Amino acid sequence: MDEIVAALADQQAELTGLVTGLEEAGWQRPSRCPGWSVADVVLHLAQTNELALASATGRFDAVIGGLAGGFGPGSVDEGAGRMVAEQRGQPGAAVHARWQAGAGELLAALRGCDPSQRLTWVAGELAARTLATTRLAETWIHTGDVAVAFGDGAFPPPTDRLRPIARLAWRTLPYAFAQAGRDLAGPVAFHLEGPKGEAWHLAGDDEPVTVVRGDAHELCLVAGRRSRPEETSLRAEGPDGDAVLELVRTFA
After folding, report:
1. Is 73's pLDDT higher than 50?
2. Can you give the pTM of this predicted structure?
């Protein structure tokens, strides 16, 4: 748990470095998220951090009801969009302050959780360690969304923080398939190359019937819906190969 929370803290710091000192025009630049400005992306992270904090402290139902009336009908993405639409328009400095305050409180709350403690989240209950990893994955992908607004020079290089994100993508394949109304033919393994050229092998005890090989950064971008599989060097073999690359995800 300590390793994941430390990685989350580092990822939060990377995003903070991109937005600290921005003038209002910078906050209003378009991000990689269609229709969202930099301020909208950071507001979304502030809101979802507040939800995660509420989850870690047993107040999830009360807090989600206060954020634009909760998610209500529709997908999780639609609910998140409604939350941003309800609260957008604040000055960038206010969004920044809210993001930083919530980020720090979330880290403290997660450090106090038992890694296996079951917590309420938007897609049902999950372990505290998994919640921390989903926050890492979302903060990482949105750091890239913000960096796009300021050009290639601002885009953060991949780091070892991708390993737990890749593992989350691998571990949650059954959930991803269930959300699509499909079944896995059997176990899946990921054989990935990390940012420093190291081998990351993600597999269970049973012999895999499907194997995905390639760059870990590309896999995480595909799982975060920021790259299409055909745009990457990822290769999948086995009965579920194409479906894994289509459905893999790191979000609810």
Report:
1. no
2. 0.94
